[in-house]
Amino acid sequence: MKTMTCEQLGGACNESFSAETFEEIAELSKQHGAEMFQSQDEAHLEAMGRIMKLMQDPNAMQEWFENKRKEFEALPDD
């Protein structure tokens, strides 16, 4: 099990997510992002805007995603 924060995953807060795999932690982050979008949290909306810009360039998005995966894999187990 490894833990990353919303901020480490490109978000805007220190909420922590713990999971066995990067895919699981990405899904937890995605769910959190959806909740923050629904509540119209300004800081999270700004973070989402940055991710949306990255998504316009598939290569940049892929590179960002792989860097986050490497960061997750380098973390010590909880």
Give the SSE layout.
Layout: E1 2-5, E2 16-19, H1 22-38, H2 42-55, H3 58-74
Antiparallel strand pairs: 1-2
Give an account of the 3D structure:
The protein is mostly helical. The protein has one domain. The protein has 3 helices and 2 strands; from the N terminus they run ββααα. The longest helix has 17 residues, at 22-38. It starts with a strand and ends with a helix.
Key words describing this protein structure:
3 helices, 78 residues, mainly alpha, two-stranded antiparallel ribbon, 2 strands
Summarize the structure.
Helices cover 62% and strands 10% of the residues. The chain has helices at residues 22-38, 42-55, 58-74; strands spanning 2-5, 16-19.
Number of helices: 3
Helix-residue proportion: 55-70%
Mean pLDDT: 95
What is the string of SSEs from the N terminus onward?
EEHHH
Strand content: 5-15%
pLDDT < 50 runs, ≥5 residues: none
- Counting helices, strands and paired strands, the structural category is mainly alpha
What kind of sheet is the major sheet?
A: 2 strands, antiparallel
